[in-house]
Amino acid sequence: MIKLKEKGSLIVISAPSGAGKGTIISELLKRDNKGRWLSVSTTSRKIRTNDIPGVTYNFVTEEEFKTKIKEDYFLEYTNYSGNYYGTPKEYINEKLNKGIDVILEIEIEGASNVKKIFPEAISIFILPPSLKELVRRLKKRGTDSDEKIIERFKKAYQEINEVTKYNYVVVNDNVEDAVSKVEAIIKAEKCRVDKIEEVIIDTKEEEINQLLMDEKFRNDD
Ligand code: 5GP
Fold it and tell me: What is the per-residue pLDDT for 81?
């Protein structure tokens, strides 16, 4: 048998708000919850109604966040819209060494900092299908004021221009298609020669000699 020993891939996914990245990521995890792991970020932002502490984020105060920065707890961190967000270093290498893919759902500056530390990370940018659809999705949430929607739209509009900094771009027109594209990217990256640590050929020399001498293979295609 010929096996390829691969490390897990570090997958960085970014998107402007309203592009549907959350749905795509939960679908990716549903399809393979053993081989993929989503890193839980730490943030100083306020808990929203649909947040689950310890699952969507680990919530801390700004002071606690700053202490963690001093303790070198983060792989990367940033201040986004007045709040701190950071990826804990813990577990990332451990998961990658076990062959598990690690997903980071982070914004653009964080993505670029991760690329400096892990140049082999796969960065994917998710785009909404149109600006009209983006506005529709931002309004659909129903929890934000008009000012907040306009602010989010402006930010999203700026972020769309950053797409060229990423390795891949996926338009989220339809969740099923978008997830299939992201999975195709992950699979293709695993076949790259520079991502393979070792080619394991576990056939003994005697077995090879036996195969070469075996008459029954002579006329096979
Ligand atoms: P939200 O407050 O809407 O959950 O997230 C705001 C932005 O922060 C999103 O673009 C999200 O991807 C990003 N974000 C979440 N966690 C992290 C993190 O650990 N690091 C960085 N750089 N960005 C993050």
Answer: 87
